[in-house]
């Protein structure tokens, strides 16, 4: 099967060819990026006849996607569809400004071109260009599974040295924003903005999940009657198990990320099915 679409894929580590490996130290591990376990790159090279684009970063949050999509639509006039791997709602952006001011940065300020050939262009975020402005992703880690309880305090995902990024802030962020209605509202705003940007170009946006543990709202039309958005509610891991009778949970590159064979299944079978999804609001 071959098609002729200039697709923009956006996502987190699952769209980044990412895997981690333990070392002799219990607190350290090695990571690999842009490996073969990347459905988006495989699809671009083996299924599409036209050049595609991938913008991803490990740990990325949904809030960053509107900026990435705006940047790509500015750079590439031939994008014909956006394929958005929606990710966990318990992630957010943090930043540091040396000027302690409301800096206005261009959408491509943190963008870094990783690789380009006739089949695919790979982009990722670089956390800073000059240490005047720094940005990273953070997320919740629990002491025990399903720990979103009033008496449980999450621990910090990683140590940062930037002013203000301290435990009291982290606890407040978790209890009074992450696990409240505000997270759903922010997600709905981001999707509405993405839909509006796609409407400018009259291109579709396909939203999907790679695993069933990722949140998805019942109502996507919270702020806007979406005109460009298509949603596949069944996540890739469940769809492949039900339709191909293959359990990709047994096909892992590490504890979290699928290996290259699982990503080939996603690229060859799930993504074509995703692209058949009707509009959310016909």
Sequence-ordered SSE layout with sheet pairings:
Blueprint: E1 7-11, E2 19-22, E3 29-32, H1 39-46, E4 52-56, H2 65-75, E5 81-85, E6 91-97, E7 111-116, E8 120-125, E9 133-141, E10 155-156, H3 167-178, H4 181-201, E11 205-208, E12 229-231, H5 236-244, H6 260-274
Parallel strand pairs: 1-4, 1-5, 4-8, 5-11, 11-12
Antiparallel strand pairs: 2-3, 6-9, 7-8, 9-10
Helix pairs in contact: 1-6, 2-4, 5-6
Entry keywords:
282 residues; alpha/beta; three-stranded antiparallel sheet; 27% helix
Rg over C-alpha atoms, rounded to the nearest angstrom: 19 Å
Query: Which structural class best describes the helix and strand composition?
Result: alpha/beta
Shape: globular
Number of domains: 1
The helix content, as a percent range, equals 25-40%
- Give the termini distance in whole angstroms: 27 Å
Low-confidence stretches: 143-157
What does this structure look like?
The chain has 282 residues and is an alpha/beta fold. The chain has one domain. The chain contains six helices and twelve strands. The strands form three sheets. It has a seven-stranded mixed sheet. The protein has a three-stranded antiparallel sheet with strand order 6-9-10, with helices on one face. A two-stranded antiparallel sheet has the order 2-3. A hairpin with a 3-residue loop joins strand 7 and strand 8. Helix 1 packs across helix 6 and helix 2 packs parallel to helix 4. The radius of gyration is 19 Å and the shape is globular. The two termini are 27 Å apart. About 5% of the residues have low confidence.
Short description, anyone?
With 282 residues, this protein is an alpha/beta fold. The protein has one domain. The chain has 6 helices and 12 strands.
